[in-house]
Amino acid sequence: MTPAEIAARFGTPAYVYDLDAVTAAHADLRSALPDPSVLYYSLKANPHPAVIGELARLGCRAEVSSDGEVDAALAAGVRPDAVMLTGPGKSGRVIDHALRRGVTRFSVDSPTDLRRVGDHAERHGVRTSCLLRVNADEAAAGSGLTMTGTASQFGADAGWVAARPEEFRGHKTATVTGLHLYMGSNLMDEDALAHQLEMAIDLAARMIGHLGDLEEVDLGGGFGAPYAHRGARPRFPGLADRLTRVLDDRLPGWRGGAPLIAFESGRHLVADSGLLLAGVVDVKRSKGETFVVLDCGVNHLGGMSGLRRLPRVAPDVVGGDAADVVTATLVGPLCTPLDTLGRDVRVPRVSPGDLLVVPNVGAYGLTASLLAFLGHTPPAEVVLRGGEVFDVTRLTLTRTSTSVHSG
Ligand SMILES: *Cc1c(COP(=O)(O)O)cnc(C)c1O
Question: Which residue of 29, 151, 215, 298 has the lowest C-beta tally within 10 Å?
Answer without folding.
Answer: 151
